[in-house]
Amino acid sequence: MAGPKKKSRAPSKSESEGSSNEESDSGTYHGQKVIHMNHVQEIQATFEGRNPEVQDFHGIKQLLNQLFLKAHIDLSQMSDLLIAQHGVGSVLKQSYGDSDDEDEDVEMSDEKDVFGIASVVNLGSHKETPCVQQFFSLLEELSKKHADESIQTEIRKIVTEHSRLGFLVNERFVNIPAQISVPMLNSLSEEVDRMKKKDPSYDFEYYVMICKTCRSKDNKDEVIFTNDEEEIFSKDADIGFEFSVANESDVGLGGRWLAEDKQVIPYRKVIMFKASKLKNIISKIALFVKP
């Protein structure tokens, strides 16, 4: 990992209530970028979205590991790519306020704990990077093994004919409520819009996503999306295929973060959709997760 470590700070009340989306010197986003979720689904904490920083490396890597499990991908390198994209993407962290007597334990937790991430890996710009090459190899391998021939053909067509592809990362601990995804995804969409004015490679044609799903052992026809909002992504996807990861360790589904104590079989669903659909999908998600 390269670059100096930057100290994050929580925004003041006046900053949080403002309408600015600008980035501060510390790397903390204000205004619409600040996300507050109090007393929602037993989560009694305040969270905020911040742009990824070097100290978030291990938290981001842990979240990526929830998706990829034992897949042969250099997640350290992919985490570095996400951190290096200045102005694109956000991590979800707990906000502790600006108290001067904040103790050292709280400060350490604030720096290390990453509860979620919404970002995108620019696959076209980094096509020569080993972790991106590994990603494409994994996509090809999984589609050959689990997708029917027509879907395999569509995936090959998208990958070969469309160079501006983005791997959309939407991941968090499973006991963080889905409502928090809306401001994070909206921020990501706005950031990509700003970035593509400077760098045309961010004018994505398609997004690729990996969704965590599971099926009840008692009713395998029942599909449960670990991140509720990804059901909307899946419904609006142009293509997709699913596969079981029951033989791989997955603490994100079977461990201490699971909201319901039920026996499930973990799956992954790979989807691809036109980038032009993203804003409409986010609007649908906002209605879907509305209390």
Short description:
With 291 residues, this protein is of the alpha+beta class.
Protein traits:
10 strands; 8-stranded mixed sheet; 291 residues; 36% helix; disordered N terminus; alpha+beta; globular; single chain; 10 helices
What do these coordinates show?
This protein starts with 12 loop residues before the first helix and ends with a helix. The longest helix is centred in the middle third of the chain and has 18 residues, at 181-198. The protein is built from 10 helices and 10 strands. Helix 2 (57-68) packs across helix 3 (75-84) and helix 8 (230-236) crosses helix 10 (278-288). Strands 3, 4, 5, 6, 7, 8, 9 and 10 form an 8-stranded mixed sheet that branches. The protein has a two-stranded antiparallel sheet with strand order 1-2. Helix content is 36%, strand content 21%. Residues 1-43 and 251-261 have low confidence and may be disordered. 36% of the residues are buried. The protein has helices at 13-16, 57-68, 75-84, 104-112, 130-146, 149-161, 181-198, 230-236, 251-254, 278-288, and strands at 38-40, 43-44, 47-50, 90-94, 116-122, 165-172, 206-216, 223-225, 239-244, 264-274. By secondary structure, the protein is of the alpha+beta class. The radius of gyration is 19 Å and the shape is globular.
